[in-house]
C-alpha cells in the first residue's frame, strides 16, 4: 500500500512540511517519487516514522535519531524494548514527582506537614530531571538504558547524608581543581586526590564503578562544550582538560 504525503501527515499528525524536511536531511525518504514529483510512502516508512516520533518523545535530537536508524545493526524489536524501558522509567519518575507536588500542595494549605524525607525526595527527583534534560541523550547513546536506569535508582535511594556528602565532595573537587591549575603536574599528590574525589563523586550515582567508563566520562568533559564550560566556569579555564588528563592517567 502507498501513502501520499497528505495521507502520511493525516495518520501521523506530522505536517507535510516536516515530512519534506525529513526527506531533505535523509531521515525519512519516501519509498518512491512519482513522475509528477509526488512522494509516495510504504508501510516501511510508516513504521520508521513511528520510531522517529518515539525517539523524539524520549528527547533525542534528529541527528542522533538518524545515526541510530542508519546503523546496519539496528533491530526494531530491540529498539522498542529499550524505548519501553525508558518510558516506564519516565512514568515511574513522573508519578513520584506528582506525589511530591500533591503533598506540597496539601502541606501549603495547612492540612498536612511534609517530612524532611519527603522534601528531600523532591530535591533528588528534580536533580535527576535536570540531568536527564541536559545529558540524557548522550549518556544513553554511550552506556545504554540499563546503566541509566540503575544510576537513577541508586540516586533515588541516596539518604540525605549521602546527598550532602555528594555535594560536599563535588565542592571540594572543584576547589582542588583550581589549585591544580597552578601546579599542573600529573605525578603529584594533588592530582591523585582530585582523581579520588571524582571517583567518589561518581560512585554516588553509579551502580558499578568501571575504570574504562570513568575514562569515557572524562573524555566527554573535553568533547562536549557543555561539560567543558561547567568545569571551566567553576574552577577556571583549562579545568575540564586538566581533569580529563588526571582521570586518563590514574584510572
UniProtKB/TrEMBL annotation:
SMART domains in UniProt: HTH_MERR
Keyword Ribosomal protein tagged: no
Transmembrane segments: none
Record key words, sorted: Activator, DNA-binding, Transcription, Transcription regulation
The keyword Nucleotide-binding is annotated on this UniProt entry: no
UniProt GO molecular function: DNA binding; DNA-binding transcription factor activity
Residue intervals of the HTH merR-type domain: 1-71
Origin: domain of life: Bacteria
Protein name per its UniProtKB record: MerR family transcriptional regulator
One Pfam short name: TipAS
Amino acid at each position: 500500500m502507498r501513502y501520499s504525503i497528505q495521507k502520511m501527515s493525516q495518520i501521523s499528525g506530522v505536517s507535510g512540511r516536516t515530512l519534506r524536511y525529513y526527506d531533505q536531511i535523509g531521515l525519512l525518504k519516501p519509498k518512491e517519487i512519482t513522475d509528477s514529483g509526488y512522494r509516495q510512502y510504504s508501510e516501511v516508512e510508516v513504521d520508521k516514522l513511528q520510531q522517529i516520533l518515539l525517539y523524539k518523545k524520549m528527547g533525542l535530537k534528529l541527528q542522533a535519531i538518524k545515526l541510530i536508524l542508519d546503523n546496519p545493526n539496528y533491530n526494531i524489536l530491540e529498539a522498542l524494548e529499550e524505548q519501553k524501558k525508558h518510558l516506564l522509567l519516565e512514568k515511574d519518575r513522573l508519578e513520584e514527582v506528582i506525589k511530591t507536588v500533591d503533598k506540597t500542595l496539601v502541606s501549603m494549605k495547612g492540612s498536612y506537614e511534609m517530612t524532611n524525607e519527603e522534601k528531600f525526595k523532591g530535591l533528588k527527583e528534580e536533580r535527576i530531571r535536570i540531568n536527564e534534560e541536559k545529558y540524557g541523550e548522550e549518556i544513553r547513546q554511550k552506556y545504554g538504558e540499563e546503566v541509566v536506569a540503575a544510576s537513577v535508582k541508586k540516586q533515588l535511594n541516596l539518604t540525605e547524608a549521602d546527598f550532602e556528602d555528594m555535594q560536599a565532595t563535588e565542592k571540594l573537587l572543584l576547589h582542588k581543581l583550581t589549585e591544580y591549575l597552578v601546579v599542573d603536574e600529573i605525578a603529584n599528590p594533588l592530582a591523585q586526590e582530585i582523581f579520588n574525589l571524582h571517583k567518589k563523586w561518581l560512585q554516588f550515582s553509579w551502580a558499578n564503578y568501571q575504570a574504562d567508563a570513568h575514562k569515557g566520562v572524562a573524555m566527554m568533559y573535553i568533547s562536549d562544550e557543555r561539560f567543558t564550560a561547567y568545569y571551566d566556569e567553576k574552577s577556571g579555564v583549562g579545568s575540564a582538560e586538566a581533569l580529563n588528563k588526571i582521570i586518563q592517567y590514574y584510572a
